[in-house]
Amino acid sequence: MGEKGKQASEQTLARRIALLDRLPVGHTPAAGRTVGELTGFLNASGFDCGRRTVERDLEAIDAVGSVWRTIGVDLQQGLDEDDGRVPRWSHTANSKALLFRTLSNEDALLLSLVEQELKFFMPASAYESLMHYLKVSNRVLSLHANQRQFRDRVRVIADGPALRPPELNMPHLHEINEALLNGEQLELGYRTARSSAETAYRLHPVGLVKQGLFFYLLAVKEENTHKRAPGPVQTFRIDRIRRVARRLQEPVARGLPSLEAALGNGQLQFFDKGPVGLRLRFADTAEGMALCDSYRETPMAADQRIVKRTDGSLELQATVMYSLQLVRMLQAEAHRSYVVEPTALKEEIMEFVRQAASLHLRPTPP
């Protein structure tokens, strides 16, 4: 091919990529672009072409067996709603040729936020694919100061003090996510907070979750899978994992509980003692009333109700899980509310208050 022929081919390729970039993803065919609109855009972008050239480009791209179709370009035509004789062109909703469409500012921002929040839940293969798009995303955002500033102005803030989360080993997370993706078992080396010794486990993963500052792997140990109903599901904090490896081609046991079922059974509520009928009364103070209002807006349970008693005090009644999380929450609110029932929970909170008072009233050494 001569130099002129090469230049003409490159010009045609560049024009068709620009054309594809201009076409919207049409969930309805009538939402596309007309040949006239596309011709005007291409000429404004430096391509000297007429309507017939644009028509030929669209026909070539959409032709059965064209190279464009083999890489995922899938075009559709719809008729203009006002003039039923005018066709409009767009990508179909499931078109996968994303690399031939320039990211909009909003697309680039979305990818950036996804990378920030969801990278921990991606298998390595998915994260590598995302990284290719992030290069384009970052380039687009670098050209638009407002979009870049918006990304820097969005945060997820913890409920409590700004504690520094433990460092996460990303290769460990990727290996766990690959096992979840492929339904494979895991070999784990794990160390608890109070031990320097490493314990080896063979696990059947159920899911990966983030709660507060920590990520947890939920899984069933190998020795607990040889039952009609495998279980129980146990938790392993990701930052305490010292080594992890997939058992390639070794599927997890059948009948494992779902992640939803494990969470529904209070798996991450710690030392769960089962459901109880909670009766909680609020202090007759501004702080007590503020706490009551907070529970009205964010109920503890679906059956929660707040009733006014004959003495004018307010009482919350709800069926809740008796767990370490519940105890800690009530301990933190002991100056604004007090437990009436169940008796065991009331006594646990009272003992906490006694110990706290004893500690804080102890004379300070000189």
Structural class comes to alpha+beta
Taken as a percent bin, the fraction of beta residues is 15-25%
Please state the second-level CATH architecture of the largest domain. Answer: Orthogonal Bundle
CATH topological fold name of the largest domain: Arc Repressor Mutant, subunit A
Report the principal-axis shape.
elongated
Give the CATH class of the largest domain. Answer: Mainly Alpha
Mind describing the biggest β-sheet? 5 strands, antiparallel
- Quote the distance from N terminus to C terminus: 93 Å
What is the radius of gyration? Answer: 30 Å
Poorly predicted regions = none
Helix content: 25-40%
Strand order of the largest sheet: 6-5-4-3-7
Continuous helix count? 12
What is the number of beta strands?
A: 11
- Indicate how many domains the architecture comprises: 4
Determine the mean pLDDT: 86
Helix-strand pattern, N to C? Answer: HHHHEEHHHHEEEEEHEHEEHEH
Organism: Massilia terrae
Domain WYL: 172-244
Protein name: WYL domain-containing protein
InterPro entries: CBASS_pafABC_assoc_protein, WYL_dom
In words, what does this structure look like?
This is WYL domain-containing protein. InterPro entries: CBASS_pafABC_assoc_protein (IPR051534), WYL_dom (IPR026881). Pfam families: WYL (PF13280). Residues 172-244 form the WYL domain. The protein is α+β, with helices and mostly antiparallel strands. The protein is 40% helix and 21% strand. It has four domains: 3-99, Arc Repressor Mutant, subunit A, CATH 1.10.10; 105-152, no CATH class; 185-262, no CATH class; 275-361, Alpha-Beta Plaits. It has helices spanning 3-22, 35-44, 51-62, 67-70, 105-118, 124-142, 145-152, 170-182, 259-264, 286-297, 324-332, 343-361, and strands at residues 75-79, 87-91, 184-190, 199-211, 214-221, 234-237, 241-251, 275-282, 305-308, 314-321, 337-341. The strands form three sheets. Strands 6-5-4-3-7 form a five-stranded antiparallel sheet, with helices on one face. It has a four-stranded antiparallel sheet with strand order 9-10-8-11. A hairpin with a 5-residue loop joins β9 and β10 (314-321). α5 packs across α6 (124-142) and α5 runs parallel beside α7. The radius of gyration is 30 Å and the shape is elongated. The model has no long low-confidence stretch (mean pLDDT 86).
